[in-house]
Design a protein that fits this description.
The protein has about 675 residues and is an alpha/beta fold. It folds into 4 domains: about 20-100, no CATH class; about 105-220 and about 365-500 and about 520-605, Rossmann fold; about 225-360; about 615-664, no CATH class. The protein has 26 helices and 13 strands. Helix 9 crosses helix 13 and helix 25 (about 625-635) packs across helix 26 (about 650-664).
Length: about 675
């Protein structure tokens, strides 16, 4: 392995290049050791007179160097190799693993800056919080300066910014999930974290995986209806805010300052009606058409009245009474929050197949009291399931807050929310404001995103800066390309003093040398952009910036469990998460297929009404359309009727046929 210890594009300051000095000292040490070994061999065999000339010549009458002395010297050297060889190998191995950043760790911080996050300090803090049943803390990596493991405390929130292929899953997500013995909620847009950790986590408790888009090819073996989360007006508004945030940029383009808030109030009112009426989430599209409920559909206003929500019921009736254009804008905005219901694959994760559906229902209140694991998988962009992902995340977080309030302000066992790709798959509007107090309740928030710009786009510049500032552990790793971010990060890391020297020659040949200390940025913007894989900068509360060596999961003693889980996952799904893409190329299952002729015929047979049930004002069936169009066009040409082609009732068809008979 080649050691990358030289800082790229930087010349060493005067007096700071110690490589040559170490080589020179090493050579002197080798010569001294060899000389001592030779003298020892000569002394043991009685050769020479204790001097090098005495071994070569016969000065003093003593014998010359003998073969016995040679064997003794070889034996001494072999003993030295056996004793010191392993130490030298370890030293070389450690040196070869160094990156060019590592030599600057001593300029960033001291051992004192690590005193709160060492294993000993983290264990002591966990004992203080009575949280040792979950572990000693959340692993962050190793401090490059001291090679000590460092931990986030059980009342600290974290945010990680690392670019693509920087090792977020292997070095951050997997170690934190594997070492936490309390409940864990994990979000992702890839199957890698699930594949590595679901097996070992099943030893601690039940494993739940919500995979509506078939990323990890997991079936809908359990249910959770978002409506069950709604137990108050406040929760209804929170749920609608999550659905609204899950929309795409195109959906939110040109948001109207009137229709958007009114649409949210309308949808939260309908969600409340569904809750008190015992309806599933699939009832909401029936109530957001802009028209009063159709026959057989419960009236949401009546349900709200019956539940004592009189003001909410009045609002619903007021929206129905709006002028047509205004009503269409409000109801159209509300319907935009329900785009996730268009995909039948998503619906199956929320609504039972029937009254006899045996699948269990996830209870967030029971979950936060367990050691279970919840994996929420979703893609990003149009047609994604991130409304479900964020909704269930909010439900579990709210259950954890309720439990903390019941237990005097803190959950008995810390709950870990590891939100990987949060800006893409878990648009949670309230998340930035939670960073200031969630940790104190034992709710550990870990948000992982790819760039600061991504976070600003997801939550807004001010909200994201608030989240970054409130995080007890703010870390940045490889793959940063935002000029403003790396400039701010370089400023937070700070400067170091270097010794510079200058020489001058006077008019009479007199030479003088001056030395002075100068300040220089420890890492420039270019340095941070070129950070090597496996290194990150940690900004922990109460400490100067710390250079972290991220620990790949394979370096831990439990790595064999992850490998066994990944192998089992590969055998089951044919997805190899050990590939370079981390499993991102998983097949997109559950796609719609064209209907066959047999399926179409069966559907028509099921949906065809009986002759006695036919309403003469209903639309004509498809197979009569051509005949109706032909008849209407003929009569229109003769100016006998004026009918718009496109919607033909059976009554119209009968009228056309009667007139044709009269003409004949």
């Amino acid at each position: 392995m080649v050691a990358h210890t030289k800082r790229p594009n930087k010349r060493n300051s005067p007096g700071t290049n110690q490589v040559g000095a170490w080589i020179f000292l090493g050579l002197i040490g080798f010569v001294l050791f060899a000389s001592l070994a030779a003298f020892a061999a000569a002394w043991v065999t009685g050769t020479g007179h204790g001097s090098l000339p005495g071994w070569i010549t016969a000065a003093g009458g003593g014998p010359r160097w003998s073969s016995a002395a040679t064997w003794v010297l070889v034996l001494v050297l072999l003993i030295a190799v056996v004793l010191f060889g392993p130490l030298g190998f370890l030293a070389w191995r450690q040196w070869s693993r160094k990156e060019w950043t590592d030599g600057l760790a001593k300029d960033m911080h001291s051992r004192r800056d690590l005193k709160e996050i060492t294993a000993k300090a983290a264990r002591k803090d966990a004992e203080r919080l009575r949280s040792t049943q979950a572990g000693i803390g959340v692993p962050l990596g190793k401090a490059v300066l001291t090679h000590q493991p460092v931990f986030g405390l059980y009342e600290w929130s974290q945010i990680w910014i690392m670019g693509t292929r920087a090792g977020k899953s292997r070095s951050v997500a997997v170690p934190q999930i594997m070492t936490h013995r309390g409940p864990v909620i994990s979000t992702s847009n890839k199957p890698d974290v699930w594949g590595w950790t679901n097996g070992p986590r099943s030893e601690l408790g039940h494993v739940w995986a919500q995979d509506p888009q078939h990323i990890a090819r997991q079936k809908a073996t359990w249910l959770w209806d978002p409506i069950t989360f709604v137990k108050s007006v406040e929760r209804a508004e929170k749920l609608v805010d999550v659905w609204a945030a899950a929309r795409t940029v195109g959906d939110m383009a040109g948001l109207d300052p009137y229709f958007e808030p009114e649409g949210r109030k309308l949808m939260s009112s309908m969600v409340l009606a569904a809750r008190v009426g015992g309806e599933y989430v699939t009832r909401l599209p029936d109530w957001t058409t802009g028209l009063p409920p159709a026959a057989g559909v419960p009236d949401p206003a009546e349900l709200l009245d019956a539940a004592g929500l009189d003001m909410v019921a009045k609002d619903v009736r007021a929206w129905w009474a709006l002028p047509d254009d205004q009503r269409a804008g409000v109801f159209g905005t509300a319907r935009s929050y329900l785009s996730f219901l268009r995909d039948p694959r998503f619906v199956r994760w929320m609504v039972p197949d029937g009254p006899a559906d045996p699948r269990p229902v996830l209870d967030p209140d029971a979950f936060v009291r367990s050691s279970d694991t919840l994996y929420l998988l979703s893609k990003e962009g149009p047609g994604s399931a991130r409304a479900l992902t964020a909704g269930l995340t909010v439900a579990v977080y709210t259950a954890a807050e309720d439990l903390a309030e019941e237990r005097g302000g803190r959950v008995p066992t810390p709950v870990l929310f590891l939100l990987d790709e949060a800006a893409n798959v878990c648009r949670w509007p309230e998340l930035p404001s939670l960073y200031s107090h969630a940790g104190g309740k034992g709710i550990i928030l870990v948000t992982i995103i790819q760039s600061r710009v991504q976070g600003q786009n997801a939550w807004g510049p001010d909200q994201f800066e608030m989240m970054w500032s409130a995080a007890n552990c703010a870390s940045a790793g490889r793959g940063l390309n935002d000029a403003r971010h790396v400039a701010d990060l370089a400023s937070l890391i700070g400067d170091r003093q270097i010794l510079s020297s200058s020489r001058s020659t006077g008019t009479k040949g007199h030479r003088s040398t001056s030395r002075q200390n100068q300040d220089e940025r420890i890492f420039s913007e270019a340095d941070l952009r070129a950070f090597p894989r496996g290194r990150a900068v940690l900004l922990a509360s109460g400490a100067r910036a710390i250079l972290l060596a991220l620990q790949d999961y394979s370096q831990h003693e439990w790595a064999w469990k992850c490998d066994a889980s990944a192998e089992s996952f590969r055998a089951e799904t044919k997805i190899d998460i050990a590939q370079a893409d981390g499993g991102a190329a998983a097949a997109y299952g559950g796609m719609l297929q064209p209907l066959t002729d047999a399926q179409l015929a069966a559907h028509r047979a099921r949906s065809a009404p009986a002759a006695s049930d036919v309403d003469p004002d209903q639309l004509a069936v498809a197979d009569e359309r051509e005949r109706v169009e032909l008849s209407v066009n003929q009569l229109r040409e003769q100016e006998q009727i004026r009918v718009g082609v496109g919607r033909f009732s059976r009554r119209t068809l009968e009228t056309v046929e009667e007139r044709q008979e009269d003409q004949s």
